[in-house]
Design a protein that fits this description.
Layout: H1 3-6, E1 11-24, E2 29-42, E3 46-50, H2 57-65, E4 72-77, E5 80-81, E6 89-92, H3 104-114, H4 119-132, H5 148-161, E7 166-170, H6 178-194, E8 198-202, H7 206-212, E9 215-219, E10 226-231, H8 241-244, H9 248-262
Parallel strand pairs: 3-8, 3-9, 6-7, 7-8
Antiparallel strand pairs: 1-2, 1-4, 4-5, 9-10
Helix pairs in contact: 3-4, 3-5, 4-5, 5-6, 7-9
The protein binds adenosine-5'-triphosphate.
Adenosine-5'-triphosphate binds near residues 24, 53 and 57.
């Protein structure tokens, strides 16, 4: 855990009193999805966001990604207001992250291509990230030739190859089977330990959040406000599924976060 960052370091992302409203002009409807949310995401921390369905987790991600603007309040990165999407913020979604007509190598190299990096350089760089995701053997394969877990590892490699300042993940492992999901979580922590980066990870799974995070932000039922932040001080070298589920600290933190999510009195 990046304790220095959490106890006085610099926030990478600062959200202040942010309200996000989805407006449907045709139907003359508006829907307040996030209300008066204040939250910092510290440099190189792994922050998980949990909360009841519809509480605004994905909407929060959209604002940091620059896909939508707050109606009131602010969202900044390194002190600068976020006004549009940018390569400095990478997003991994649950599905559709890879272009089906491109190989793993071309998918991972795509962002570098857009930035004008010459072919040999971008392929060498992409292969480094592919190796990190343990996909070297699959570099020339197309997404439909990969398992769901391999596809998500490729999606993470593609995002990290763009060297963003923050990687945001919206339920990235929700579509894979339970066993694959556990190994993807361990793999993600291995990669993150080797490549420190700020991570915002959205999930429905309290266990997943407590396993991965430095801190878990629990939102209230929609419109989402911050209910509580729970610090997860389980040592990084204890984050293995074969042992952690019998660790009393893990059990206590999981139960605490679960109680916060289930309490509907926002
Ligand atoms: N494009 C949109 N137009 C109108 N309302 C929207 C739109 N997208 C989301 N909403 C509404 O905003 C609220 C928050 O949705 P959001 O998807 O951010 O929640 P969530 O916490 O990510 O949900 P889930 O856990 O079910 O994925 C919900 O009431 C949803 O119906």
């Amino acid at each position: 855990m990046n304790t220095a960052a959490l106890t006085g370091g610099t926030p990478k992302i600062s959200i202040r009193d942010m309200t996000l409203v989805h407006v449907n002009e045709e139907r003359r409807q508006s829907n307040v999805s996030v209300e008066n949310l204040t939250l910092d995401i510290m440099e190189n921390e792994f922050l998980c966001v949990v909360g009841p369905s519809g509480c605004g987790k994905s909407t929060l991600l959209s604002a940091i990604a620059g896909f939508m603007q707050p109606q009131t309040g602010t969202v900044t990165m390194n002190g600068e207001r976020i006004t549009k999407p940018g390569a400095d913020r990478g997003v991994v979604f649950q599905e559709y992250a890879l272009l089906p007509w491109k190989t793993v190598l071309d998918n991972v190299a795509l962002g570098l291509k857009f930035r004008g990096v010459p072919r040999a350089d971008r392929e060498a760089k992409a292969m480094e990230y592919i190796a990190m995701a343990r996909l070297t053997e699959a570099a020339k394969k197309y997404p439909h030739e990969l398992s769901g877990g391999m596809r998500q590892r490729a999606a993470v490699a593609r995002t990290l190859a763009n060297t963003p300042e923050i990687m945001m993940m919206d339920e990235p492992f929700a579509a894979v089977d339970a066993q694959t999901r556990l190994s993807l979580q361990e793999e993600l922590l291995r990669v993150w330990n080797d490549n420190p980066i700020t991570v915002l990870f959205i999930t429905h799974s309290v266990e997943e959040a407590v396993f991965l995070a430095d801190r878990v932000a629990v939102l209230t039922p929609g419109p989402g406000k911050l209910r509580e932040i729970v610090e997860i001080d389980i040592p990084r070298n204890a984050r293995h599924w074969d042992t952690i589920t019998s660790d009393p600290e893990f059990i206590a933190l999981r139960d605490r976060v679960m109680a916060l999510v289930r309490d509907q009195n926002g």
